[in-house]
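Worked problem 6 (solution included).
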Amino acid sequence: MKKFFSFLLVVVLLAAVVSIFLKKGSTVLASPSPVGLDMSDYLLSSAGNSEQFIDTATALGVTSIKLAIPWQNVEQSAGLFTWSINPQGTPIDLLDLVKQLDRQGISVTLLLEGFPPYLQYANLSEESIASTYLESWDRYVKAAVAQFGELVDAWQIGESVNLPFELQDQPVVAAVLASPSTYAQRLLLASDAIKEASQSDIVILGGIASDTGNCINQPSAFLNSMNTLQVWDAFDVIGIDLTTYATAPEGKYMYQTYDTVSGTCLTSAEGGFNLAEIIALVDATGSQYGEKPIWITGMAWSDQDLADIASERGTLTDVVRSDFLARASVMLLGRHNVEKIYWQYADSDQAGDASFGIFSQQVLKNLSASLQGLRSAVDASDVLNGYYQYRLTISGMVNIFVWRGYGGDEFLPFSLKNVSGYQLEAFSLDADSVKNGSGMELSADANGETAFLLSERPVLVKAIPSDVQERLSLQMQGVLDSTGRSLKSSAQDLIESQKEKAGQEVEAWVDEKKESLFTMLKESFMEWLDEALNVEQFAK
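Solution. The predicted structure is:
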């Protein structure tokens, strides 16, 4: 009888999974990509209207974008809000814009930032400066949540929050407003307003600039301050505004970090750190206080750096941009708790050759498609020989990204190892498509290796298990992971409302039972899939 009920449980679970998988518009079928676009600057400088903005975002094929709600534009007089902006003289209704994006299936993260023009600090004490600012900040955040809360699920609280405020001729005011204590209060006020409206909404700490050039302002020091100020539970995600350098993503750069144990500044050893190692330091620091996911809230290379490197390589600036953005994204995602990356978008009509052009747009589409359903990543690089390889587990397959760290567009032979038992298909990331069947088929030799020519341009190799059971196991594991996230997300509001009524003791019990239930269902289903069904024999 016990076995019968266990079998009945997994059958019911399978029916639920199949129902979700086949349901029209299912999030499992259309798993969002972890790569999005920060289009805030584009929106605030564009001469186009809302329809043109929507057309641009839709054509880029993104599932997630970030937009700013500029405080100085929406509240020019205290308490009087207007939710429209006029870039280049063209009025844009922000609420209507977000509604249209939502109808297009594009999720929006809102950045709350800016400085209202009506605030005056003459003859105020430092305490009064902070309280005056925070009173206005609280009003702005609550108004934004009331206006956009039904359409938005993620909120970024500030930008480069560990850098000084840019207030000319007001050094005292700038110092007070840029202090960690003032930001901690901003974060608490914002978190309270957002969570009161929806407990499931995501509150993002920062973005924090990844490199300020000053040890006492580096992310490790800033995160230590947030923990000391007891606001670690006021946010869900650590946001990092990634500082890039005049070198490739794998390149080393001298870096200072704050050691929270000794309270001293440490400088990287000879050779420095690359971007992934800098983020690893952020993750290690944050994990001391309570593990949090990391979102790269902004990533771009300067036009001048890209132009100089493109000149050395003898190629286009946009080619280098697309290479660097793709390589950095693959290096970071799935490792060091990095769950999402926003590329900073620049309008090609405004910046000419140093723009987000056709190569960057195509690589964005293909990379987004190849990262949907991302579960984990493994670094299999051979750095000493200048080859970089990352194996990302996607639902039903392993996507292998490889490139050389030097040599520009010169092609050299490369041997990809440990690929026996896989059906292999290779793509250039700037190809017209990365759909199955549109790439170049590869075959592994008796040693489990395959060979092809490789340059600095990233290559995607799709590796689909030849074994039916392994392939289905990977696919269903991905479905389960996605379904579990969907179930947790859908149930979160109900769970939180029950918590509020239950008190602290019952809250802990609900958390424990919630996690154990999902674990039990997941383990029971996988056991049934692997053993009871005997998938391989059934397929034959």
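Discussion: The two ends are 30 Å apart (CA to CA).
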